[in-house]
Amino acid sequence: MRVRKKELIESDVSHGTPDFPLFVHEDIFVYRNGVVNPHWHNEFEILYMERGIGKFYVDGYEYKLNEGEYLFVNSGSIHSGLEMIKRSIGYAIVFDLRLLYSEEPDYCKHEYFLPLINKRYHIPSNLNDEHIRNDICRIIEVFKEKSYGYELYIKSLLFDIFWRVFKYYAERRNQDGRLGYKIERIKDVLNYINQNYNKNLSLDELSRQVDMSKFYLCRLFKESLRMSPVEYINKVRVDKAMELLINTDMSVSEIAFECGFDNISYFIKVFKKYMHTTPLKFRKQNL
């Protein structure tokens, strides 16, 4: 399986430029063999399925997107996905909402966008608005072309999308404090794993880090990410191994130990489970 150089849509990745903070990630399922690992970022995101079927999880809720359907992901939401049909094609339009308002006194900022960021508005996930769909497709097309003035056109399309969203679909709501608490605790665990994936991580250690029982931690992972802590740790380690296989001359055994595996056979087994190939074959395919 050949993997494109990464343009990952994750918390430590810049989306766009400081003066135009928007990026369209193409073919989002290609990077990890049909899977988008759990992650979050401060930017707003619009997911769009061009071909096939994708399943996505956002803050513990499951959504299935068929061809031509889209999904809104609010800033700070933990989300992940996987293709349900091989060679599905999905796009992620990721942008900072500050693209659409100024820091000066701005009515739209305080009336619409800040309440959206603070989750005081609920946008239904299963919108079936042809006008919005056309705007999303146009954003993708215009971003690819990047002809002169494309930034102005994309901003106008985003304003059109949010005008329709707020006029016809958005609903005021009280924030669910319990959900917010759960999401923040999960983020604490994910941060710890991502910073310490190369160490010997145990369930006992993770539960101590966030001061909760192992049982509750596992339940929280299943509810929010649809996977166990061990599964997430292995996904992170395989992801790091992919980078090293592509970008370094380290041996497979060196990479295994560098990524936190203390057994080469187990590393190969886990890598093959997620990538459907061995580390050595993966490296040869991506030279």
Automatic annotation (TrEMBL):
Alphabetized GO MF terms: DNA-binding transcription factor activity; sequence-specific DNA binding
Which Gene3D superfamilies did the record assign? Answer: Homeodomain-like, Jelly Rolls
UniProt-listed InterPro entries = AraC-bd, Homeodomain-like_sf, HTH-like, HTH_AraC, RmlC-like_jellyroll, Tscrpt_reg_AraC-type_HTH
SMART domains hit by this protein: HTH_ARAC
Taken from the record, one Pfam family name reads: AraC_binding
Q: Which UniProt keywords apply?
A: DNA-binding, Transcription, Transcription regulation
SUPFAM superfamilies xrefs: Homeodomain-like (SSF46689), Regulatory protein AraC (SSF51215)
Residue span, HTH araC/xylS-type domain: 187-285
- KW Transcription (keyword) present: yes
Identification of the protein by name: Transcriptional regulator, putative
Species per Swiss-Prot/TrEMBL record = Dictyoglomus thermophilum (strain ATCC 35947 / DSM 3960 / H-6-12)
